[in-house]
Structure formats: structure tokens, C-alpha cells
Amino acid sequence: MFGNLSDRLTASFSSLRGKGRLTDADIDATVSEIRRALLEADVALPVVRSFTAAVREKAKDAARSQALNPAQQVIKIVNDELIEVLGGQSREISWAERGPTVIMLAGLQGAGKTTLAGKLGRWLRDQGKRVLLVASDLQRPNAVTQLSVVAERAGVHVWAPEPGNGVGDPVAVARSGVERGRSHGYDVVVVDTAGRLGVDAEMMDQAIRIRDAVSPHEILFVLDAMVGQDAVNTSVAFRDGVGFTGVVLSKLDGDARGGAALSVRGVTGAPVLFSSTGEGLTDFERFHADRMASRILD
Ligand code: GDP
Q1: Nearest atom, ligand 1, residue 105 CA
Q2: From the UniProt record, which GO molecular function terms apply (predicted)?
């Protein structure tokens, strides 16, 4: 995962190894290397700035206290800073106090929302929850069929537009889906929504209308980790448009550089709750910043 970033970060520590004491010049040189590694991985500039400033300051403090094994100290500082930038402690889904917990998925077309609906469905079902997936992506041909297929594989139910269910109107489908969830005693209703290839006003307006119709407990923004520099702009557009309570990083199994993963929390303020690591139903896990940081520095 993030092979190039891992290699570059590891290399940045190499000149420190074997040193008994670190000078300011040693630290500055290492921090410059770290900065270059992060920029090359497409990490957002403000995140790079705060990251490197924190590492520099802490490393200089550690050097002043004449810590043993300074290289190890710097690695630990970078590790802690990675955990911080990735979001620190992971958080649980905010469950509804009564009635079904409504989880709305938002993101660009191809980000992995429909696939995620199946994965979430399966994961929640395995925890004993009754789950209904709602097909409010009426934009993409086949999205409804795709959701029905993943629901069947996941062993959960699906609510899709049929005559009388509000054909053609994604807001009506979402509303009726959540009503169905409530009247039939489901624990969780996952609402899949339409994306576009790029951020567009019509898509955002539809997402906002769905949000207002179903008052979700969580809005999960699905971000394709492979998109590189566009990740920041897309995340900010969704944050300022429909808004979201959490992020799901998808396609972390691909050769993503790391920029999206390392920037999204800092840029949007929202925590990453899950990561998706493949096309299969079980290629999905809770996101743990500490585990991700140690994978990067492995
Ligand atoms: P949506 O338009 O946001 O609903 O995106 P889809 O769920 O249809 O996903 C788009 C494509 O990405 C599909 O071919 C999925 O199989 C694939 N995909 C989704 N999540 C992942 C993932 O975590 N890893 C990989 N490798 N592919 C994924």
C-alpha cells in the first residue's frame, strides 16, 4: 500500500541511522525529504505544511532532550503524525436511538458506492442487523440491477423503484425506502445515490434533496483513493454541497499514491470510517489510522 510513499519515507530516515545525536541540519534535511515524499504522493499542500512543521518541531525537541536512538525517535514522531493526519481514533457509526439508522452514500460515479452498499450490508448483517438497501441511483443504467445483485449476494433486502414506488424520481424512492425500513422493522437503511463523472450542480442538488427527504444519521462520502490531486477538490465540493459525516476510502488495493487518504481528513475535517480494498463483498474493513500508519512505515 502506497509503496512509493513508504519507500520515500523510509529512505528519508536512512541518513539518521547510526547517529548518536541529531543536529538541526540533520532534522531539516530529513524533513525536506519527508516534504518531497508527501508532495509526490499528492498530499494536499496545507496538510504537508502542518505535517512537516509538527515533525520538525517535535524532532528538535527530542534532539534537545538528547534522546537515545534519534533515528528511532524521528520514525516514531512521523508515525504519530501519520496517525494524527489519518484521523487518530476511529469512530463508530452513529446509530439511531429509535427506528432504522439511515446511512446515505454520496460520491462521484465510479467511486464505489454501489459496491460499498453491498459490503456495508453484509458487514451489518453479520452483526445481526436487518438491512435494507435503497436504489436511489437512477442515473446510471444498470445501477438498480447492480444494487439488487449485490444485495442478494450480501443476503440483505433491496428497495428499488417499481411502478408505484416513484419510478424515475430518486428522492421519492429514497423516501419510500426509508418509510419501508421504518414500517418493516429494519435496523439499517442504506441509500445509494447517483454520482456523475465530475462534480455537477444537478447531482449535488439531487443529493441534497435526498438528504433532506430522509434525514440520514450518517452521510458517507465515498472517495476513490486512486484519483490523486482531484481528491481534494472533489471532497471539498461534497463537503460544501451535500455535506458528510464520514468518509469511505475505496480502491485502497490499487496503486494509489496515498494523497487522497492522507489529505481527506485534514481538508474536510470528517473522519474516515471504512476502507474498501477490492471488488469482493468482504474486501472492506473499519478504518484504523494506527494500522494504516504502520503499513505506510512498514
Ligand atoms: P458507483 O458508481 O459509485 O456506485 O461505483 P461502483 O460501486 O459501481 O464501482 C465502480 C467500479 O469500481 C466497479 O467496477 C467496482 O467493482 C469497482 N470497485 C469498487 N470498490 C472497489 C475497491 O475497493 N477496489 C477495487 N479494486 N475496485 C472497486
Answers
A1: 3
A2: 7S RNA binding; GTP binding; GTPase activity
